[in-house]
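Q: A reviewer asked whether we had any structural model of the full assembly, not just the individual parts. We don't, so I'm hoping you can provide one. Inputs are below.
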Amino acid sequence: MNTPEPTDADAAVPVDISGLGKNFGAKVALADFSLRLDRGQIYGAVGANGGGKTTALRILAGLLPADAGWGRVLGVDLRAHPDWLRARVGYMTQHHSLYRDLTVEENLLARARVYSVADPRRRVARLLDEYGLERFARERVGRLSGGWMRRAQFAAALVPSPRLLLLDEPTAGLDLPTSQQLWASVAELAAAGVTMLVSTHDLSEANRCDVIGVFVEGEIVADGAVEDVIRRSAAVVVRVPTAGLDSASARANLPGVAVVRWGARQCDLVFRGEIPTAALRWLQDRNLSSQAADPTLEDAVSVFVSRRPLVAA
Amino acid sequence: MNPLNCRWHQSVVRTLTLAWLESLAIRRDPVILVMILIVPALQVALFGYALRPLGSAASVVLARADKDPGALQLLEKSGDFRVVADGLSEEEALARLRRQEALVAIVVHPPSASTGAVAITVYADDSDPVRSNPALSKLESLYWRQVADPDFVPQTEVRVERLYNPQSRNEWILTPALSGVVVMISMLMLGALSIVRERERGTWEAMLSTPVNALEAIVGKALPYQLLGCAQATLVIGCCRVLFGLPLRGDMPAFGLFLVMFIFAHLMIGLTISAAAGSQLQAVQGSVLIYLPSMLLSGFLFPFVNMPWWAQRLGALFPLTYYTEVARGVMLRGQDAAFVHARTLPVAAIAASALLAAVMVFRRRLP
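A: Here is a predicted structure for the entire assembly that you could use as a starting point for your response.
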């Protein structure tokens, strides 16, 4: 029996998934991914490369079938209606995905037709206007700067007027002003009720999200509001001057340190939980004046990501 | 009902949009246009002038009033000939030649009422001289052996007529099938590189995230190349006509339909390779795997009928085999629509199978 086609009813909970998993052969790309997002919420997927962020987005975009778990996206069964979802979810890929030989307008127009938008030209004109792309409308995408190319790609993801938008590292390689403009657009969309999942390596961007998840080797090791994630990481930061400290001896003699983050004059030693006595003694022996610092999201993520004894950042 | 909500309408719009996208991309890539329209013409000219093939074969029909077993035994005893029909009329014998049921027709005319001398006309199908030349040579040597026989009464006049390529023009030997080889390679390569190139450029993932389905993607991608292929085939065959005076005697509309199917089949095979390939290099290698046996097993370079049965069966899987038959038949022997349609059907079946394979292999492969 065929599953009936879902209707376009507006879902109060656009993302409600539980235990989603995906394996590529023996490799676990994503395990036990659960998430519930209300309308207009922004979810930030952070973590190291290969953590499973892109896999999670691809599953939600209907590009990859999940091997385990269940979920409702925009109110419909994720695994039963991938075609229906593809027509309604906006997806901006990590890499440039517009046709470089075509103009910005042609790219958007093609998208609008593929999505069966009622008045493609009008929709494209509106997007060009909203995202300041009018002056580049007839410019080939391949001739645009990286920032404008990314902005055009962002506009292309919005062509179907999605209520769920998936952004895979949208600001990768962008300068600060362009990145800020893009986030301003994200905030506007969220205010308009668009739910978003954003994958990012830039942890300052994660601070703009309502909820974040830390992806490590396919597992979501922590999630929640940024403050919660920081607290749960149990990161303890000690700031010491760099004079008299070298990388090799720090690695060798500071037990329990998760990350050593070097600065020009001082460095932060990030510990998981309490600072071991041996580490404190080692610092005292070298007359290194240490002072406690508030852990940041970067510290917290570093602690989660570093399951190894020591990672130099 | 709003036509925009009709699933078929949306599907057609999506397919045409992909075709439009592909057309724009082709138009803006001058290298591809040069590859498709200029290089093939140069290839035809180069190969047409440069290659000089030779070969052998022999099936014979006899047109004569009496069925004297002596002549029959003579031919069959030589081991070089196989008599497939005897006692035919001259018209029937020539028709069999045109249908390629025989390579040589020997017509024994009634003895002259005044002198009693017998006139014999030997017709040979020179649309495939790789086979007909050796057959005529063997027939000639057989004749001279007879002449050397002391009992031979020289009251016979023998005349040889080479049909379809009477001047034995070298260009006419290769160019009919060569035009198909050129189109085949172009279409295979274009199809094979199309999806894999998009995958490498990063545009494919975004396309897969849209509602475009496998059939729409495959057909949409193929459409502009189909038109380009038709233009290329017209240009190539036009070059054959202008440069080498190829006669084009047969049913051209039927040949046009065959060409459309021939081009589509190779695009579909190419797109199947592209959907399966992980890189452009793989796609190119996959194409070579198709076009090399096509060239060797189709009768383009070596006589098809001389191959063992298994090689003929294998050759029947390649559209070029049918093209070689149809091109020689239509261009040189003036074959009719029925002959062409009978060979269009298997090519259509190959195209449909390849389309099915492309859709199945396509799935939603990510980079």
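A: Points you may want to mention in the reply: Chain B has two domains: 8-37+170-362, 60-163. The radius of gyration of chain B is 25 Å.
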